[in-house]
Hints:
Largest sheet: 9 strands, mixed
CATH superfamily of the largest domain: Aldolase class I
Oligomer: single chain
Radius of gyration: 21 Å
Strand content: 15-25%
CATH class of the largest domain: Alpha Beta
Number of domains: 2
Strand order of the largest sheet: 7-8-6-5-4-3-2-1-9
Shape: globular
Structural class: alpha/beta
Amino acid sequence: MLANSLGIYVHIPFCRAKCSYCAFVSAVCDRSLQQSYVAALCGEITAAGGDFSVPVDTVFFGGGTPTVLETTELSAILQGLRAAFPVAANAEISLEANPGTVDRNSLQILRQAGFNRLSLGVQSFDDTVLAGIGRIHRAEDAEKAISDARAAGFENISLDLMYGLPLQSVSGWKITLDRAVALGPDHISAYGLKLEEGTPLEAAVTSGQVALPSEEDEESMYDFLNVFLPSQGYARYEISNYATPGRECRHNLKYWNYEIYRGFGVAAHSFDGVDRFANTDDLSTYVKSLTGGMSCEGFRETLDLPTAMAEYVFLSLRTSRGLSGTNFSRRFGREFVEYYEEPIARLVRLGLLMQETDSWRLTERGMKLGNQAFAEFLP
């Protein structure tokens, strides 16, 4: 597939403490392993530099908590990317961070290194809720981190929030949203808790040690979220993401627009338009493989046409813009309304899907029942 730009994801798998709900590839590790990992990661980036010639217009450092690393290490990784790839002058360069792992000085260094978008994992402004899920920070730490980031020159700040958490009430969720908006972030991601198999929280809920909000309360949180944030100037542009004008996450839009991206680091995924591949999800294997000059790839598949079309459909339908029939036809040589005639008819009948000229998008009810809608398109 021809592409005129590339997104790059860099995975930093370290945390100061593992949150009880987290199923991402991350761990609490000593400095020696962190240093070995940074060296391996920089080597992987350098070796792949010749694979793409198109400009890199988005970079996203995620985790884990990238800011567990030293600022010099994060700066060196970004410098290595710039040396290996043609990173555009106006590239969006995002860095995930948790309150309690950054201060004004470290943020100034990172801003000067070239990071221009900060994504803060706040989750809640209720200290009791934060403690219950194993977060290392308090609400006041989040407020300070945002203030420090603005002072350090970050003009594009995103907050991650979660609802449906243990000890969280509908009124508490409303307070969290109030406090979040009062801080003036440019972007807010708000996710409903998903109990991931094998996490401490899943085990605690299954055993009855921890209770979650009722389905009715979680639905009330969702409903309030999708009235309140738009009323405060945050337009919903994807199922779980809201932004002020022009502050949509350009990197994440690449995923939803089915564009190409390259991932570096343990468990990092890539997509070149035809093949989907990923690095090993074992941290030790990743470091040893790259240190020994071997491939760290752990998975690769070539997508068949039905799978590729289905992925394109439900990723497009995650966005408020929806799916363009013309773009679908141009990409796959099939007519969307003909190939998916029966699923479309069912979803329209259920009030989950609607047509606007050449485009199809989920209704508000469809956004709420997204998984049900997406399942209709699976091969």
